[in-house]
Automatic annotation (TrEMBL):
The keyword Nucleotide-binding does not apply. One of its GO terms (cellular component) is phragmoplast. It comes from the Eukaryota. The lineage of its organism: Eukaryota, Viridiplantae, Streptophyta, Embryophyta, Tracheophyta. It holds the Pfam family Mob1_phocein. This is MOB kinase activator-like 1A. Residues 1-29 are annotated as: Disordered. It comes from Cicer arietinum (Chickpea). The keyword Cytoplasm applies.
């Protein structure tokens, strides 16, 4: 199955791509991302373009990485099932429980696909909230914007950690490991550039992360 072919995806975990914030500089910055990624130099591609606002840059990239993880996980929905993955783990030592602090305040144990579904719903609600991700040109970002972005990236990392620990052989059999590795490298370099994820959170993929950022 092609990575971008719809296949038999579960629509609850695979969503249509979200667009960069319209009306902001999002579309312009998205073009910059596409152009710099095309050069193949991911270390340069993640850097804040000269003269740009860091929050605008974080916002458009957050949408971009949300879409990437969405597409990657979408290829695995027939393999990552409640029976195959009854808990959201990243190897034998790490298990993630879900809480959003609003509808689910106390962390609950859920299957991996349910965790990803909750996560994607939650991220989408953040991206659609104009008080957090403003759509209008010149509208201010909230004071806690960086904290929200950090939480989004911390949780997106958990999806990568689960894929690498539980489904890497399936990714290899689908001949998608090069794409997975490139997406993850881009993700790690971006989060490292802007210090978005604490080092302890990266422990499930520590060796892989270290090989990327060295």
């Amino acid at each position: 199955m092609s990575l971008f072919g719809l296949g038999s995806r579960n629509q609850k975990t695979f969503r249509p791509k979200k667009s960069a914030p319209s009306g902001s500089k999002g579309a312009q910055l998205q073009k910059h991302i596409d152009a710099t990624l095309g050069s193949g130099n991911l270390r340069e591609a993640v850097k804040l373009p000269p003269g740009e606002d860091i929050n605008e840059w974080l916002a458009v990239n957050t949408v971009d990485f949300f879409n990437q993880v969405n597409i990657l996980f979408g290829t695995l929905t027939e393999f990552c099932t409640p029976s195959n993955c009854p808990t959201m783990t990243a190897g034998p030592k790490y298990e993630y429980r879900w809480a959003d602090g609003v509808t689910i305040k106390k962390p609950i144990e859920v299957s991996a696909p349910k965790y990803v579904e909750y996560l994607m719903d939650w991220i989408e609600s953040q991206l659609d909230d104009e008080t957090i991700f403003p759509q209008r040109l010149g509208a201010p970002f909230p004071p806690n914007f960086r904290d929200v972005v950090k939480t989004i990236f911390k949780r997106l990392f958990r999806v990568y950690a689960h894929i690498y620990h539980s489904h890497f052989q399936k990714i290899v059999s689908l001949k998608e490991e090069a794409h997975l590795n490139t997406c993850f490298k881009h993700f790690v370099l971006f989060t490292w550039e802007f210090r978005l994820i604490e080092k302890a959170e990266l422990a499930p993929l520590e060796d892989l992360v270290d090989s990327i950022i060295q």
